[in-house]
Amino acid sequence: MRRIWLALVVLWAVHVSAQEVLMPVVGRHQASGGKQSGEVTIPFFDDFAGGRLDGRLWCGSQSDVTDGWGMYPPTVGVAKLDAVDEEGVLYQNISSTFSADTLESRTIRLDSVFEPFQEALGPSDSLYLTFYYTVGGRLSSFGGRIGDEPDEQDSLVLEFYSKESGEWVKVWGRGGCSAEELKTATGRYWQRVAVAVAEERYFNDGFRFRFRNICSLDPTTTAGLTGNSDQWYVDCVYLDKDRAHNDETERDVAFVEPARSLLKNYCAMPARQYRRTEMVENTEALITNRYSVTVASHYGYYVLDARGDTLYSYDGGYENAPPFENEGDYQRSGYHARAAVDFCYPENTLMTRYKVVHVVKEGVMGDQFKANDTVVFEQVFEDYYAFDDGSAESGYGLTSTSSNVFLAAEYNLPNADTLLKVKMCFNRARDGENGNVRFRIVVWKAGTNGPGEVVYRDEMLRQPQFGGLNEFKDYELERPVALEGLVYIGLEQEGADYLNLGFDRNYNHSDRLYYRIGSEWQRASAAGSIMFRPCFVPYETLGIVSVVREERELTVFPNPARDRFRLNGVERGDEVTVFDSRGVEMQNVRAEGEMTEVECGVWAQGVYYVVVTAADGRRQGAKKVIIVK
């Protein structure tokens, strides 16, 4: 029986059983921009390092480009062929086996090499198409396989287009198997294939080639548990003349995985909650030398602020990179693979983003394949927390015999703040079956071993909203919720259907994820991070932040307040304005002395901001006051 989900962990609570289930994701990136027509000539090379299909080389967008899926990928970025179409939904012509994704090249001119004084190409020019492939996806660093392995009746095929006959000709194929079967056969998970372009009928102005995925689905009676399947991965597609079938390694020093967050606990967090203690001690850069001998390579990284100015730079110098002999032969030098992080992002900053840019190259000039020599991570300090990097490798959900299940993620807020909404990314099951799941947003204080007292619970029931691949949807809370310290934010799900929430397998924060069926909370066992982002008051955008540095010490007491609070440090004639978390003005008064009292008994619970404007127009910084009931 096919494994429809990726990992199945059986956990026991009091009187009920529960299962954490991970499902393959459904969705599709769009092809990148660039030249969409015109002639393509050799050499033709793509290692999919750009994160999207290159429209200058490929037709359509049935196949997808992804990071973090293939086991020991040759370089960062691989093309993925699976069971969802260009719209990101499961193919509708499903039978026992059916033609699913296609990755098709644009027309390539093989009638001439377009060089002065060169003769036209022909069968004697030793023209080879080489590529690497694997199946199913890698084992996560934290456990469990990412991806679904094709069954025996499934296959990946390569076809050449014959212009003279108008037909596609199969020139290579591989039946479905497991990644371990590939490893057993050759000692590697990634298999290299070399196919000669040697027949006269292909040497004209109409040559094309394509990969096709022939796959199948197993039905299930459980709503929401029919997902994507039968993944094949293709990398380093290279077509050129004057080659040999066994020139296995191209001279290429490259990154193997995407850049990572430089924060210990989050990929993104609210700017005002950031502390220097959040920084990691070392980078994690996975670098390979896909050549047959050791070469000297240079590595460094730098951090750019929102204006593009360099905030910090690191020079790792030159180190020898070992040759690509066995999968996993990566650069081990600590100066390149685990560089020290000797800087901190600025504290107490407004909302902003930084770019962390990693660069590696062979020698001084670099090699001919430069697209995979740079990887970038965008570090976000805005108004939300994110454990995930924005890319779902699985869908997460709970199945249970209980009528209600609870899911909660742990967050630490050093500063008091106001929760306004939650962004969630749902993976669409076949025919949108999980669109009928009903849930409420719930917030808990910290308990002894996980979530404790409920401080917020939706009155209304909500349902998943679907967008494109990795697209988040906003769920506004029914009222703002004032929070501080250790809190838990999550869902109460009605019924036992599968929720299928996006799940990032590249960052493991299972120690911050809890679920409850019955009376006891359990820590999650599925390794990864849910794509669930609590959003707080973006007070920097409400027009209530100081443009002039504070000159007087303003204090608010009591804080939290219930019926009234006093503002100390003002001067007679100052304008005192109070805004709620949405930027709506609640009260405006003139100070009569060094202390002003504000009545707040009728205001709703939440966080408010007090702004003092002097008579000369100078504005002092917003002071936060929490109203409790």
Question: Can you lay out the helices and strands and say which pair or pack?
Answer:
Layout: E1 7-12, E2 17-24, E3 44-46, E4 58-59, E5 64-66, E6 78-81, E7 98-105, E8 128-135, E9 155-162, E10 167-175, H1 179-186, E11 191-196, E12 209-215, E13 232-240, E14 253-255, E15 268-270, E16 287-289, E17 295-304, E18 310-321, H2 334-337, E19 352-362, E20 374-382, E21 394-400, E22 404-424, E23 438-447, E24 450-457, E25 473-494, E26 501-504, E27 513-516, E28 521-523, E29 529-530, E30 532-536, E31 555-557, E32 564-568, E33 575-579, E34 585-590, E35 595-599, E36 606-613, E37 623-627
Parallel strand pairs: 15-20
Antiparallel strand pairs: 1-2, 2-21, 3-13, 4-7, 5-6, 6-13, 7-12, 8-11, 8-13, 9-10, 9-12, 14-16, 17-18, 17-19, 19-20, 21-26, 22-25, 22-27, 22-30, 23-24, 23-25, 26-29, 27-28, 31-32, 32-35, 33-34, 33-36, 36-37
Structural class, judged by helices and strands?
Answer: mainly beta
Q: How many discrete structural domains? A: 4
The count of strands amounts to: 37
Give the helix level as a range of percent: under 10%
Low-confidence stretches: 1-17, 31-36, 221-226, 541-550
Estimate the strand proportion.
35-45%
What is the CATH domain class of the largest domain? Mainly Beta
Name the average pLDDT.
Answer: 83
Shape: elongated
CATH fold call of the largest domain: Jelly Rolls
Report the CATH superfamily of the largest domain: Galactose-binding domain-like
Number of helices: 2
Q: What is the level-2 CATH architecture name of the largest domain? A: Sandwich
What is the C-alpha radius of gyration, as a whole number of Å?
Answer: 28 Å
Tell me the distance between the termini.
Answer: 56 Å
Could you describe the largest sheet, including whether it forms a barrel?
7 strands, antiparallel
